[in-house]
Amino acid sequence: AQSVTQLDSHVSVSEGTPVLLRCNYSSSYSPSLFWYVQHPNKGLQLLLKYTSAATLVKGINGFEAEFKKSETSFHLTKPSAHMSDAAEYFCVVDGAGNMLTFGGGTRLMVKP
Amino acid sequence: DGGITQSPKYLFRKEGQNVTLSCEQNLNHDAMYWYRQDPGQGLRLIYYSQIVNDFQKGDIAEGYSVSREKKESFPLTVTSAQKNPTAFYLCASSPGRLNTEAFFGQGTRLTVV
Asked: How far apart are CA A98 and CA A64, in angstroms?
């Protein structure tokens, strides 16, 4: 069994300040982990993925995430938020057989 | 261009009617998925298929049906048995191997009127 918990349903930051979106997971297997972004009424776009290589993963648009096995976490960060980062973000775990389990999502709001 | 295409983008249905949502991919992916998205609830898996002519129920399959007659196509029918069908539906595909990401279509917003 596997599950994903996104600890914040909403995060609000000011433009130019750091972003932290938190994700904890559980999995019976060595998981692959993903972060996706969704803009309103759009599909999901892959930001980055962890697949048991380097624990610090760099993605698109300046985002990165660190896999911490001891904490079962995969938090998403960005040093400086941009207005265009406002969207919904999903943490996803793939524990076995390509069955993706989604977190509940975090809506990121960026204030000017 | 390679990708995954959902149609239509918006769909309106009268109560009691069946409606079919289209999903086509030209990525040569083995696995395809249907998710339902409601506000504040993330994505929930309806059905998935890992190979042609085979599919399995996801977490919320009741009131839905699918077919997988071709590798490229995985249509979803929302039947009149689905009590609350108004939602955003997302189709995805993946190569079907471990450690590979899924690719998503742009979604279909279904509204029951």
From this structure: 23
